[in-house]
Amino acid sequence: MSGRGALIVVEGIDRSGKTTQCAKLVSALLSQGHKVEVMKFPDRTTETGKMIDAYLQRDQTLDDHVVHLLFSANRWEQCSNMLENLHKGVSLIVDRYAYSGAAYTSAKQGFTLDWCKNPDKGLPDPDLVLFLNLSSKEAESRGGYGEEIYEKVEFQKKVHNNFLQLKSKQWKVIDASQSEENVHREMLNNVNSVIENVKGQQIGKLWL
Ligand code: Z5A
């Protein structure tokens, strides 16, 4: 039966393996004959994405509220494109989404999770969120952190706790300390059943 595509989000702290696993998922799904595309947030190619990139690389100082709203705007820029693809039957594998937005900003002083969720309310609601669960210590051991602004163990620990507060019924928590292949197998099993199940379902609105 043809039908809409599934919106699959992959989340986790830095170095949890999101980009590696998104690539593996896409190639496995393509070889199974599915229509699938990968997306990544932030999308650093757009105007908002360029500002975000300059901020993350410490080339530009921005107020934390502004940064948060830029990350959200960067997702809204893709909203109609995402809906169009989903309606055409293309499944989307999305590397970070609004959960990263809320988890990272609310790890900063003076921000509540509730405030941080607001600008993303109404975006397409994921059918499945695969949370790659890894402690900040284990993540750091994967080659250490680079130069970007959030790449510090203490900060990533807070982000990890915030992610766990965002868990909802669409979430599957995957043990990301397993081998790449085992993580992949577990993710693919979950994705395959969701792609089949959502075909006749409407696309929901996030956090509404
Ligand atoms: N951010 C935000 O604040 N608000 C928002 O709304 C959004 C994002 C969307 C940039 O994100 C920053 O923006 C990020 C969050 C913030 N901040 N920080 N810090 P990004 O997605 O562009 O970050 P990235 O640097 O491109 O990706 P990443 O998170 O660091 O990595 P990853 O994609 O999770 O992992 P990976 O690149 O696939 O793998 C990392 C290493 O681990 C690599 O050497 C792999 O070979 C290795 N690896 C992967 N899997 C395994 C397993 N299973 N075992 C052992 N080693 C492994």
Would you kindly provide a written description of the structure presented here, covering whatever features stand out?
By secondary structure, the protein is α/β, with parallel strands linked by helices. It is built from nine helices and five strands, in the order βαβαααβααβααβα. It has a five-stranded parallel sheet, with helices on both faces. The radius of gyration is 16 Å and the shape is globular. The protein starts with 6 loop residues before the first strand and ends in an 11-residue tail after the last helix. It binds ligand Z5A. Residues 12, 14-20, 41-42, 56, 71, 96, 100-101, 104, 142-143, 148, 150-151, 179-180, 183 line the site of ligand Z5A.
Sketch the topology as an H/E string, one letter per element: EHEHHHEHHEHHEH
Quickly count the helices: 9
Overall helicity: 40-55%
**Computed CA radius of gyration, to the nearest angstrom:** 16 Å
Mean pLDDT: 96
Helix/strand-derived category reads alpha/beta
* Stretches with pLDDT under 50, minimum 5 residues: none
- Bound heterogens, unique: ligand Z5A
Distance between the termini: 29 Å
List the helices and strands and how they pair.
Elements: E1 7-11, H1 18-31, E2 36-40, H2 47-56, H3 64-76, H4 79-87, E3 91-95, H5 98-105, H6 113-117, E4 128-133, H7 136-141, H8 153-165, E5 171-175, H9 180-197
Parallel strand pairs: 1-3, 1-4, 2-3, 4-5
Helix pairs in contact: 1-9, 2-3, 3-5, 5-8
The protein binds ligand Z5A.
